[in-house]
Amino acid sequence: MKYVTSFVMPVPKKKLDVYRKTARKFARLWKEHGALDVVETVAEDVKKGKLTSFPRSVKLKRNETVVFSWVSFKSRTHRDRVMAKVMSDPRAQKLMNAKDMPGDGKRMFWGGFDVMFKL
Fold first, then answer.
1. Domain CATH for 23
2. Is 119 among the domain residues?
């Protein structure tokens, strides 16, 4: 069964172009190391909910937007193998340098999911 790892992160609106360039570099690494596909999205119709929402989940600030991305794999095992390769790649280490990150990694969250179905 297919497996997906997703990421949600706040990004300052003025740094969206930097985020896009960094995400594209990361996407190439994911693909090079075996990921099936990578999708990056930016909030367009995302309102702050009364109890929960994307903005609340990352403690969104006024000058920020939310990005949501996912990477697809054949299985959890496949994801673990690809993740290990990506995280040990010196290019990924360079991209994850906290001072150069285009968003606040402390308010980022992620998780792995089994795909129930895809139409």
1. 3.30.70.100
2. no
